[in-house]
Amino acid sequence: MGYVSSLLPDEIRRVISDSNKRANEGRQEYLRGESRAIGSDYELISCPCRDDCWCRRDGCSGHYRIREITFDEFLATYVTLWIDPPARKNLKEAVLRGTPINQRPRNAVKPLQRLSENWSTTLGKARGHDRCGLCDSTEPLIGMASHLRKAQMWSPLYEGKIWSQLYYDSLAPFDMRSLAKIKRCGYADPMKDFCVMNREIFRDLRRLAGTHGLGVLGVRQLDSPWTVLSQLLVPAGGQPLSRVVDKMFYSPG
Ligand SMILES: [Zn+2]
Ligand SMILES: [Zn+2]
Predict the structure, then answer these.
(1) Ligand 1 centre from 113 Cα, in Å?
(2) Which of 4, 55, 153, 164 has the fewest other C-beta atoms within 10 Å?
């Protein structure tokens, strides 16, 4: 049994709520940024899965998919979600204009520039993937694995955030703060294999959901940032699955 499936849903709700409370105290205004991103960059599509898919058996009503946005819009959301406010402007200029950057996220520059060069193809692939992380089929992720082999990654940490943002309902990111916990809990090291880590955690999440009869919506509802910050809108389909998984392991500052 893995870490996630060894917990009770209430324990997970508490861990995630603590993560949200800490995020709400930080200067990043993360919860507002996250809420804006769901509204502007993602659409809820009806579930295309067959009746034998896990998600379908458990009452899935739809999956989040990235909208037809520009690279500049993607980049604006990237810095809002993942980068500390003082470094945001510099990172954007480094990516778009090649200006030098000495701050911590400098390792994000190359992967983001490469993404910009391949934007329409990559966005097309991401939009072609209509599954969610709870689906049985891991095929689309395996198909993507060639992009994710470590040899081709400049920085698994910053590149993982890109992939998560592209596949917001299927891939969770990681950070130095969550990396230790992910490894301690016995999941694959995402620095070595980002896809395997995701596959293992989502498999475990299905196990948890099965044991407690949560269903897809119940899993999404493990995260409810609007209970921490009441002005936030409740997204129509609940929280994207990457948000739920990320907050089980990541807690700011
Ligand atoms: Zn579904
Ligand atoms: Zn499915």
Answers:
(1) 32
(2) 153
